[in-house]
Amino acid sequence: MQDNFNMLSAKEKQLFEYIKQDPYITQKELAEKVGLSRPSIANLISGLMKKGFIRGKAYIVNENEQVVCIGGANVDRKFYGKEPIQLGTSNPVHVTQSIGGVARNIAENLGRFGLDVSLLTASGNDSDWQFIKEASAHYMNLDHSTQLPDARTGSYTAVLDRTGELIVALADMDVYESITPSFVKQQMHVLHHARCIMADLNCPKETLEFLSQYGKNKEVAVFLVAVSAPKMKRIPEDLQGITWLIMNHEEAETYLGVTIETEETWHQALDKLLALGAKNAVITNGKHGVMIGNESEGIHHIKAVDPGDIVDVTGAGDAFSAAVLYAWLEGYELREIGKAGVLNASKTLKSAYTVRQDLSPTQFQKDMEEST
């Protein structure tokens, strides 16, 4: 081994010594110490592994590459009307049960994109959590989620008509009030190694304010995703620590106290979000597309992609947010980020699943190429 070590380059030797000293050192830390880019570090590590100098798994688990998703993980129950839904009477339906929750759905999308994802959520210690765990574990790390013995796992019940359009939804989300700043602080080692943090508005306002401040102080990207108009009051007062703020037009109207009826008022609403401090902002508007913008690249209207026959609208918004996050991490320009979100949402509308089952980096790239 000593003879082989002498054949290593100076940079390889330097890298190897740092890894010996700290097997959990991250690529970012190595890049700073050695004075090389992350891709160069990754190539050197690959060479050291092939030469037999690195065999353990400690270093390979690079927590700095994780996306940490914080918020809801529910059981979704959907009731599809066999006939036009009539209020005030019994309706024949077909019932399905699946996994949902904004943070969890986004985490699964990102896991299918090939990213390393951790989910921080609170749940009951019940059969619903086991259902979520079994369906989700392949796409995300659930080790940092907490099961509370006296709580019920979150649930979302939706009634949809024959076309898949939502009639009414009922949400039991009380367990997420347990995702307090203290809850999050217990997982600081996870946040410390986060590539970025995504949080949904199921979290209490004080938690979102804590995360916003953390992102601002630590220069970590924070994605904030709305979940409903009633929860818009949870948005932090200070948006300076928010890298991305994503909401639909009804949520934007509630938060900003405006009415979005024209493209001009839509544009103005997005401009207000940026003026409040968000570095990037998005307001989606269903079949009318999305408005996306930041200070340097301006505000752009991205047209919706017609999905054809809609199978189910549930999960399309989460698919949009996940694709925006993924495309941003991949270095896409702003307009392409918006197109990525719209495209993934459109593909999800054609799926019977909350997260489209064919999603992968290769398929997504193919979808993007075919859309041009």
Specify Rg, calculated over alpha carbons: 22 Å
Give, in spatial order, the strands making up the sheet with the most strands: 4-1-9-10-11-12-13-14
- Poorly predicted ranges (pLDDT <50, ≥5 residues)? 57-64
Mean pLDDT across all residues, rounded?
90
Decide which structural class fits the backbone: alpha/beta
The major beta sheet can be summarized as: 8 strands, mixed
Oligomer: single chain
Task: Give a nutshell description of this structure.
This protein has about 375 residues and is of the alpha/beta class.
Description:
This protein has 372 residues and is of the alpha/beta class. It is 39% helix and 21% strand. It has an eight-stranded mixed β-sheet, with helices on both faces. α2 packs across α4, α10 packs across α11 and α12 packs antiparallel against α13. The protein starts with a helix and ends with a helix.
Topology:
Elements: H1 2-6, H2 10-21, H3 27-34, H4 38-50, E1 66-70, E2 74-81, E3 93-100, H5 102-112, E4 116-120, E5 122-124, H6 127-136, E6 146-148, E7 155-160, E8 166-172, H7 181-185, H8 188-192, E9 194-200, H9 205-218, E10 221-225, E11 244-248, H10 249-256, H11 263-275, E12 280-284, E13 290-294, E14 298-302, H12 316-329, H13 334-349, H14 361-371
Parallel strand pairs: 1-4, 1-9, 2-7, 5-6, 9-10, 10-11, 11-12
Antiparallel strand pairs: 2-3, 7-8, 12-13, 13-14
Helix pairs in contact: 2-4, 3-4, 5-12, 10-11, 12-13, 13-14
